[in-house]
Specification:
Elements (H helix, E strand, L loop, with lengths): L2 E6 L3 H7 L1 H7 L4 E5 L10 H4 L5 E5 L9 E5 L5 E4 L12 E6 L2 E7 L8 H26 L3 E7 L23 H12 L4 E2 H5 L26 E5 L1 H4 L2 E6 L15 E5 L3
Helix pairs in contact: 4-5
Length: 266
């Protein structure tokens, strides 16, 4: 494994119609993590769930039309695990991981939240359960001489440099102080590395999500909420990263763009 890409497809059926399959056919990635697939396997065309040259793990949510994560890999996974031990989110379609040689790759769709609603409470319960899992999984994989990268839509902009209009979003879910503090704990207490930020420590962005409303994409008024969060050993092997931003608004097949990282193979 040398190249990993992650993208929230904002509905896999719609993305497949608008350009995802063409992108998949052209990508050099060895592993592609998808979030917000919002589809059962039976609802997807064969070219989506059985594309030539790919092994596909599709983990939809029990609630139809919501969430859903997937992993596309060039080689068949050695093992696949769904969920992270929290009963509330066991069939929520928000986390799946696969062992691929010496690296475990996970696709995460952390709840988006909305201040003052049950959605925000759900997000906070997810965060509270997920951090101990990350601590435990790092210890487990490193004890095995392996590495882990959690790719996906974390739905939190960590720093002011991670969103264009940060001053106007300090009370918005996704940039709340307690959410940002929680992500700091992932990096500082659990010891994971934000791979793209480590490669671009002093840059604004690069953003990975732009609202469909207004001219956010044209003005690059985006958020960086899609991450590859890796154990230190793997993060040190990252040599290049890029956000595959569409050339124009009309060519987008999601409101997110793929975040792709090249690693020195293990």
């Amino acid at each position: 494994m040398s190249t990993v890409s992650t993208v929230n497809v904002n509905g896999l059926r719609a993305a497949a119609r608008k350009g995802f399959l063409e992108w998949l056919g052209a990508t050099a990635a060895d592993v592609v993590c998808l979030q917000e697939t919002r589809a059962q396997r039976s609802q997807l065309a064969a070219e989506v769930v059985e594309p030539a040259g790919w092994h596909v793990v599709l983990e939809p949510a029990a609630t139809k039309g919501r969430a859903g994560v997937a992993l596309y890999s060039r080689v068949e996974p050695d093992a696949v695990r769904v969920g992270f031990g929290a009963a509330e989110f066991a069939d929520a379609g928000r986390y799946v991981e696969a062992d691929l040689g010496r690296v475990t790759v996970a696709s995460l769709y952390l709840p988006s939240g909305e201040v003052g609603t049950p959605r925000q409470e759900e997000k906070e319960r997810f965060m509270a359960a997920f951090l101990p899992y990350l601590v435990r999984r790092r210890a487990e994989v490193e004890a095995q001489g392996r590495e882990l990268v959690v790719c996906g839509d974390w739905n939190i902009a960590h720093r002011e440099a991670d969103l264009k209009n940060w001053r106007n979003n300090r009370a918005t879910s996704g940039f709340l102080p307690k959410e940002r503090a929680w992500l700091s704990r992932v990096f500082e207490e659990a010891g994971y590395v934000d791979v793209v930020r480590a490669l671009f420590p002093d840059e604004v962005g690069p953003y990975s999500w732009w609202s469909y409303r207004g001219r956010a994409f044209d003005n690059d008024a985006g958020w960086r909420i899609d991450y590859q969060v890796a154990t230190p050993g793997l993060a040190q092997r990252a040599k290049a990263a890029r956000v595959e931003r569409a050339e124009s608004h009309e060519l987008r097949w999601s409101d997110h763009a793929p975040v792709t990282v090249d690693y020195v193979p293990m």
